[in-house]
User: Fold this.
Amino acid sequence: MTSTETTSTRSKKPLVAIALAVLLLGGVAGWYFLIRDDSPAAFDIDTAAGGATSAPEDTSGSGEPDDTVEGTWTIDPDAGADAGGTSAGFRVNEELASIGSTTTAVGRTEGVEGSLAIEGAEVTAVDITVDMASLETDDSRRDGRMRSALATDEFPTATFGLTEPIDLGSVPAGGETISVPATGDLTIKGVTNSVSMSIEARLVDGTLVVVGSTPVVFDDYGVEKPSAAIVVSIEDQGTVEFQLFFAKDPAS
Assistant:
């Protein structure tokens, strides 16, 4: 080998090493991107209540927020900003291609409207409407297929309506967390089923904070599991979840 060839070979070695390092780092980055599971955590009453920052209207005439629960309550879109505000959606487990890693897909929307009514120690009415067309997941690559599976063009909303009064046992005091089941009709994609939701609620400085969830089986609502190239499988069921911030109607 000539001195020129030796010099050329030596000069290529650093380039080869750099190329290998780039490929290795790229592979590690790609692997991390595929298997990382940084989806939002499930809604939590303590986190939600800690973010109940809206200033409720004084309806008592005392200069203090109204801390009584009896009356009609309407979702306040300005409340709970520090906890992400009123939001509803779903979570479902999926298995990614090639690596067999299970991650959680989460879809949420802030497009939620509704109200509830409390008489004495009973919740007598709950009516919630969710704008399904505005659902977004934690990975935009699945959004189109998700909306297609839910047929949001034809069925842009999902609803929940209470069908049995909720017995609170006693009138809750401010700051007290109430855990109760709520039985009602859940409608998704035009299909209605009776469900029992697990509900937690807390009155915080005049804002009524409610979080809850219920399992759903996709076939029960005529929802076909969406598919994607990077996904091997999606579970047949998921969880509908929500956190809601209510303000008391001044006239109630």
Remarks:
- The first helix runs from residue 3 to 35.
- The mean pLDDT is 81.
- The two ends are 95 Å apart (CA to CA).
- The chain has three helices and 13 strands.
